[in-house]
Amino acid sequence: MYKFPVSKFALGLALGGFLITSQAFAGDEMKYGFGVKPSDEEIAGWDIDIRPDGKGLPEGSGTYDEGEALFAEHCAACHGDFADGGGGRYPPLVGGTPGELSQAVRPGQPHKTIGSYWPYASTVFDYIKRAMPFGNAQSLTNDEVYAITGWLLAENDLHDSDEPMNAEALKKVVMPNVDGFFDDPRPDVKNPHCMKDCFKTVEIKSKATLGVTPTGEDALR
Ligand code: HEC
Q1: For atom 20 of ligand 1, which residue has the closest CA?
Q2: Angle between helices 142-155 and 64-74 (to 10 degrees)
Q3: Taken in order 16, 18, 19, 25, is the CA torsion positive or negative?
Q4: What is the pTM assigned to this prediction?
Q5: For a substitution probing ligand 1, which of 120, 134, 151 has the most ligand atoms within 8 Å of its CB?
Q6: Which atom of ligand 1 is nearest to the CA of 148?
Q7: Does ligand 1 have an atom closer than 6 angstroms to the CB of 56?
Q8: Is 116 exposed, middle or buried (0-12, 13-18, 19+ CB in 10 A)?
């Protein structure tokens, strides 16, 4: 097995962390003798994912006009006044069609926005609620996120600007690129440990930049 001294530990924590926490507090016992029991409020703070079918969408509602004002205040500085992109790394959020994602139509410059690319409208709410405004994530209320999501979808011609945006309205939005994604059909890659007639020496042809490439004995494991 490859040995990544630091990252392996981190990966173990990432994969095992949930299991440890959920086991540790089974029956209110501190099995491993560390940590504190999360409150319902703390768990609710993490449990904000929203599924493609809209499960997880919170209560709340917002109008097009509210969304327009909120976008100008919290988002336009980076994404442009009309959500048409702020240049450089600040992506446009409005415009384009799935057809304009193609290299053949726009070589090297796909018109990639939430309207042209994203398969589900519920994910737009999830992403804005979770990650935006950049640098001040999760500072917006559910009403505010509904208002902004509704404004963005209306600007993409995917929602009626006279209708408020809420959980029910969001579930009805069908994104133009919903069929542009598919499950990866490739089988999982197996990497069995060598047990017999294995290489005695290993020649490293190139190295990763972060110093994680195994060397010497480690490379043989
Ligand atoms: C300080 C700059 C900044 C502000 C303010 C900001 N964003 Fe962003 N936003 C970004 C950057 C940078 C990215 C790209 C992040 C990435 O690719 O990982 C992004 C990505 C996004 C995306 C995903 C775009 C895509 O197609 O992948 C959405 C949606 C979005 N922002 C919405 C908003 C909304 C809504 C607000 C206001 C509530 C907002 N952003 C405020 C910088 C900002």
Answers
A1: 91
A2: 100
A3: positive
A4: 0.76
A5: 134
A6: 35
A7: no
A8: buried
Amino acid letter at 188?
D
Q: Is the CB of 79 under 6 A from ligand 1?
A: yes
Distance CA 61, CA 55 (A): 16
Query: Of 113, 125, 194, 200, whose CA–CA distance to 157 is shortest?
Result: 113
Per-residue pLDDT of the chain (221 residues; tens, 9 = 90+): 333 444 444 444 444 444 444 444 445 567 788 888 899 999 999 999 999 999 999 999 999 999 999 999 999 999 999 999 998 889 999 999 999 998 889 888 889 999 999 999 999 999 999 999 999 999 999 999 999 999 999 999 999 999 999 999 999 999 999 999 988 889 888 888 889 998 888 887 877 777 666 777 766 65
C-alpha 151 to ligand 1 mean position (Å): 15
Looking up tokens 């703070």 gives 45
Map out the domains of the chain with their CATH numbers: 5-37 (no CATH), 61-180 (1.10.760.10)
Asked if residue 123 lies in contact with residue 147, where contact means CB atoms within 8 angstroms, the answer is no
Residue 181 burial (CB < 10 Å; 0-12/13-18/19+)? exposed
